[in-house]
């Protein structure tokens, strides 16, 4: 006896296994839009906490330009501006982490250093902080960039 024919052949869709993980589930348009809006909200809240810096549209700081590269600034409305000035350090006097007056900076991470906190690399002969120096195979101090 022959098999009877399927009466629902027009509606038949072949089934296949599809794995839907949490990443695919969370990457829909609504959730991504909410994440984007929350990120912008946090960005603007953080910008309101900063001290006010006056950025004028017509002043361009030519000393900071390097070749064809330009510094972009975020305006009050969140748009990018091509002119402005960088925020200067609030404290005029920099101090070392030990509390004494600084004399130089770490060549790797640019932390202020006094003469007691400086460590000299034997290879590049530059001053580094204690976090950026390692003990080499000979027992001498080597900076992070020269260590390999």
Automatic annotation (TrEMBL):
A GO molecular-function descriptor: CD27 receptor binding
Gene: HaOG214770
Gene Ontology terms: biological process: extrinsic apoptotic signaling pathway
Top-level division of the source organism's lineage: Eukaryota
Record's protein name: Apoptosis regulatory protein Siva
PANTHER family (UniProt xref): APOPTOSIS REGULATORY PROTEIN SIVA
